[in-house]
Structures are given as C-alpha cells and as structure tokens.
C-alpha cells in the first residue's frame, strides 16, 4: 500500500519539529510532514510526530545511509507501521561527501542499502530515495516508490520526470520566504543557502541545470537565489510551487525559512489559503 501524501507537504530539520507544529499543519490540510537532517535509525523523532497527529503522512527526508544501519532502520519501520499503519514513508539517501569521512563507492552503497531494506522486508512502495543526478533517479524509479530531490527547481523536476518516466513518485523540495521586499528576502535566503552551496552534490546538480560558478559564488547570484528560494506574497509563491506540478511533480515539499517552531504556522496558513 502506497502512502497518500496529498498535494503539498512541509519539510523541516528534526529539531524544528514538534507536536504543535505537526498538528497545526495537519489541521491546515497539508498532506505530509517530512523530517530532515539525518534522523536516527530508531526513528523516535518520527514516532513523536505520528503520535501527535491523526492522519497526516510522515516521512524521512532523509535517513543517512552512512549513519543509520539498515537493519535497525527496517526494524524501526515495522514498529511505526504496527503502531500507525499506512502513514509512514521511509526516505533514505547517501548524504554529502564533505560531511562523511568514509564516503566511498556511493552508488554501490545505495544499492547495498536498498538490498538490506529488502532483507528487512521494507516494501518498495513505502520507501523513497534522495536523488538528483540521472543515475540515482533511475535507481529510485527502479528500486523505490520514487525520488525526493532537495534544493532543486522546476527545471530539475522536468528533467527528473523525463529520466524516471511515469508512474513513480517525484516529490521535490522547494524553499520559500514570505517576504515581498526583494533584498530582505534574498538576504534571508543567502544566509540559509550558505552551507548548501558548499556541498558538491548540490553544486554539481545546479551546474547540470545551467548555473555557473559565478552564480554559485559569493552567496549565490540573484538568479540562483530566486530560483532556490521563492519569495513574495503567498499567491506569488504559489505560482512557483505549482510550476513543479506543471513540470511533472506528484507532491511538492515546502520549506519555509526565517522562523522557528509554531511561529511557522501563520506563514503556512497563508500558503494553505491559496494552495489547499
């Protein structure tokens, strides 16, 4: 059984999630909440969110293959499925070369990890894979429910759909800041993007999309920053989010930056009025 993710979900790092935010987003009508920043193999952060909500889907985006052993993750999956059937999707990924000391044979590591999840009887339709480049996108289509691209644009979504074909999940993440002043919005975006633009898997993907070293340097060009972090009114941001659907997405994952915890809810409420 595939998990019903709805049209829009919300992504935040594990430490930003809490029962109040999760329950508030469920009440607003978002279909899924996504736990980032390499949640641990016991998936306790996910368990808290499932227990504090009633029907919204909860996913990981992503469990890091280098830091979370597959057999333990599989056990955790079955525990969550037993307690909250049909609501959890396991997103896994290879992480970043710059942050992992033993980062070697990444593609083979992904394959071996998926093999271990098979051995742990985690259903293919209940797991997804972080993927940017064509080779891993094809693997996501073949071995999981689909792909969870992060730090991307509608142009990448269009290319990813062409690579993966129809009938598999494509759920890109899109950052937003609810701010109509261009300079204030770009300043907040650059502060948030600074660490991401130091990671080669993201910068290599941006270059495949036609961005240059000059676009990536010095915090990012206006062109790059505006593509990676939508800003403006809720209605203007909604146009950018819906562009992913026009490009072939099945589910779009929103990350609002610039606020914390329950303070995020008013922004998500404003977006819900035009999206849901």
From TrEMBL:
Q: Where is the Luciferase-like domain?
A: 20-117
SUPFAM superfamilies in UniProt: Bacterial luciferase-like
Pfam families (alphabetical): Bac_luciferase (PF00296)
- Known InterPro entries for this protein? Bact_Lucif_Oxidored, Lucif-like_OxRdatse_MSMEG_4141, Luciferase-like_dom, Luciferase-like_sf
Q: What is this protein called?
A: LLM class F420-dependent oxidoreductase
Q: What is the source species?
A: Kribbella alba
What are the top taxonomic ranks of the organism? Bacteria, Bacillati, Actinomycetota, Actinomycetes, Propionibacteriales
